[in-house]
Amino acid sequence: MSATKPFTIACIQDGIADTQAATVDATVTRIRDAARRGANVICLKELFDAPYFCKTLDQARFNLAEPVTGPTITRMRALAKELAVVLIVPFYERQAPGLYRNSAAVIDADGTLLGLYRKMHIPHDPLFEEKYYFAPGESTAMAQPEGCPGPARQSGGFMVWETKYAAIGVLICWDQWYPEAARITALLGADVLVYPTAIGWHPAEKATFGEAQVDAWRTAQRAHAIANGVFVAAPNRAGFEPEAGTAGLEFFGHSFIADPFGRLLADAGTEPTTLIATCDPALIEDTRRNWPFLRDRRVDAYRGMLERWLA
Amino acid sequence: MSATKPFTIACIQDGIADTQAATVDATVTRIRDAARRGANVICLKELFDAPYFCKTLDQARFNLAEPVTGPTITRMRALAKELAVVLIVPFYERQAPGLYRNSAAVIDADGTLLGLYRKMHIPHDPLFEEKYYFAPGESTAMAQPEGCPGPARQSGGFMVWETKYAAIGVLICWDQWYPEAARITALLGADVLVYPTAIGWHPAEKATFGEAQVDAWRTAQRAHAIANGVFVAAPNRAGFEPEAGTAGLEFFGHSFIADPFGRLLADAGTEPTTLIATCDPALIEDTRRNWPFLRDRRVDAYRGMLERWLA
Asked: Which ipTM was obtained for this model?
């Protein structure tokens, strides 16, 4: 069931502290602040409590993964319950020995762990070597942690979560470049698509391509809002993170919240900040009535979407 | 086969003259000018030689349709041959008595009529009552006019055309809101997607929504360029067209040509003009190597795309 009244969403844009414990503490402070400012749904950046460790292949970094039953998600569940907020908590998940995921825990406002979305599209590029660290989300019905109600609806590994305040579609970072992921998640009944992200500049590229990269990133996701008539919220990582033997990565921030017509309700620069915006579900139906794209989809004609290449 | 060397594309943004003959004459003048300025591929606006007649239901307006063997396309074929340019000519097609289409003739640089793309997504909204006037393009292999070679490749009614200068994907107006249409056409091997368009402002909405509408229109199509790593060219209609008993429509122009990273190579205001830009196919591969989206599509997980709604 979609939201019936306005809900307020927050995107926390930040970097990391010196230790995992200090990063979690700082994030808790930011969550408390967002709740005090009226947020109902609070979204953190991708892999929120860790450095972006995928910059090189290092077996020891698998140790950064933590089970969903571990102390971090347990603490976040208690916090959600205390503040009566929905939390989207992206973390490095240890599902089994040797099986690790880029996941997001979806925690309802009473502290219930609804379940996990596991990133479907996994990149692998210089300093973003994610295919080494993460098994991709599954295209079959996904195993959820024991005792979790799981998503309200799912299709091929894409999911929508019924929370106290809104029907939320969670996707992660690289997923944001795929109109397919946005479309399927919107068709599952999402009011808002959230995209926890860790995207940054290679320092050597920033001067030439930095601005175009930010603009492409924002444009692709604003287009998901427009094509589907949904809100979009994208919290990105901020700050420089070094990696020995490389120039490191400068995560570019520029988090934003867009309405169903792609208009920016809130947007950030490169510094840590918390964005807050109120989303009125009436605007979803109003937008879809003005330009009724969903009515005219040619579902009889899209089988080519299931192929890698058609030429 | 994709283009192997740079090609120059032109978008003619204009309105209509008092008669069909005068509109065709003016368009021929603009095409000659574009060719003189170096254009290899020249794209006209949707239903180029007619007023935008779909503002009301009027049976007499079916008379505006002309067979592909009629004088207009015949004249355009001779012009393409004379100037050695590829022409994309959108027109109101009379396919059979009582069967009319919103089509685009694809004419190669030697005057060969390669065939017709027929608009797949048909809108129907106040003053855009297209479901009355047009049968939609087919999801099965499409009948091409007798003697035409047809598209090089097709899938579900979406098509790519091998012309002298480039592999061209032709889509029409409302198609531009559908990432599915862009994706399938790109996977068919297009270097460039062209979107002949007739989009405008309702005068009563312009002050409040006009700017956001132009921005949504441009953003959706720039996102197709980004998601697929292709050039996009969108020639739109310009100028006010009245309709008795209504406030009429002000076609908003703002035609543009974007590169595979969504950057604008050329863009127009609201006045008649011809945009020209050179497209280097090397940039397609370079862009797709930098952020290799096509590699990571989850073709195993997209079956939900074939449904109207999943909730």
From this structure: 0.97
